[in-house]
Write a structure and sequence with these properties.
Structural class: alpha+beta
Distance between the termini: 10 Å
Shape: globular
CATH architecture of one domain: 3-Layer(bba) Sandwich
CATH class of one domain: Alpha Beta
Strand content: 25-35%
Strand order of the largest sheet: 6-5-14-15-16-13-20-17
Length: about 425
Amino acid sequence: MTGNPVIIAGGGIGGLATALTLHQIGVRCVVFESARDMRPLGVGINLQPNAVRELFDLGISHEDLDRLGLPAREWALVGLNGNDIYAEPRGSLAGYKWPQYAVHRGLFHMLLHEKLVQRIGPEAVRLGNRVTGYRKNPDGSVSARIERADGSISEAAGKLLIGADGIHSAVRAQMHPTQPPIHWGGAVMWRGTTWAKPIRTGASFVGLGTHRHRMVFYPISHPDLKTGLSMINWIAEVTMDNNEGWKQSGWFRQVETRDFVHHFENWIWDWLDVPALIRQADGAFKNPMIDRDPVPTWRDGPVALLGDAAHAMYPTGSNGASQAIVDARVLGAAMIEHGVTQEALAVYDEKLCGPVSQLVLRNRGAGPFGLLNLVDERCGGTFDNIDDVIPPRERAEFMAAYKAAAGIAIESLNKAPRTIPDGARAAA
């Protein structure tokens, strides 16, 4: 292990994946997390094959992921009258060497934390400690300013600082003090989970409606053996006028389903009852769909951004958490070649900042859900035969372009060498 630690600001998915990666390649690190305790927060997320590949290489198994969710079998878009716009197999069924998993975000987060504590020890994550800024030292190292839960202030010295402190990142705010405020495009999301019978393949991700008014849902648990019910993660979304910006207090809060179910009252088909799915939820949360404008670099000398701190993006591509995991692995690969150095951060920044910034903008433009935009423009969202609205070749080319941008093109991913070779260590 190297002498001076790498400081990681933030103990979310990106921060913990980074710590696990650094430990794997022999780099000493410490995570500072503002929360006083780790709790399984959030609802469902998708782990794309490019991220699952990296998790397997980190020693996280099929069995681990099966306890948190299930492999996705299908991704489908459905129009307002219930007819398919586009459907394709996902993960192993699509030809990837690795599955795609739909999991409970909070349980996945707790799994990463448990693995890190098992491998490094309880001192690996220092809870109740928030990184609020940094100072670059003359010798090339960095000192992080730490604010504890009791209000006291201290500094921690490290060889490098990785800002994985989320969309409200203090590290990013210092690195880019003139950055625009958080961007809200007008979409409001209500999220929840409901125990219900899964539809289609039993493990299908379904987007239903239009680009301005839609429902997304997919199971995040295997069916109960007695009832046949799965935990269904759903997101109900409506795009509103955002001329005055987000005026409500807070970015994420619990609400009653009666506050928004009226937007979907008539969304009932013989295979799905949307208002019933919403009303039977365990609870519901409201938040705006937000991201940040891309910045020209994720690096400032011995400091680098990672995960949402680097590239907070709309969830339209289901790749925010996946990209954070990939970030961690690319950073680790750079250290294998260049050591725990500023040069490694520069290589990481050069490889990812530009392409992922373009992905942020692509997701802002609806990502793969852009097909809903086309259907809405051409026929108002209802049709008898989708081929008369968007020819098969146009649909296939649209999805292929998105997969290439997101790093999940099948052939490219399957042929790519391991990001971190087995047994590799950071260069001295």
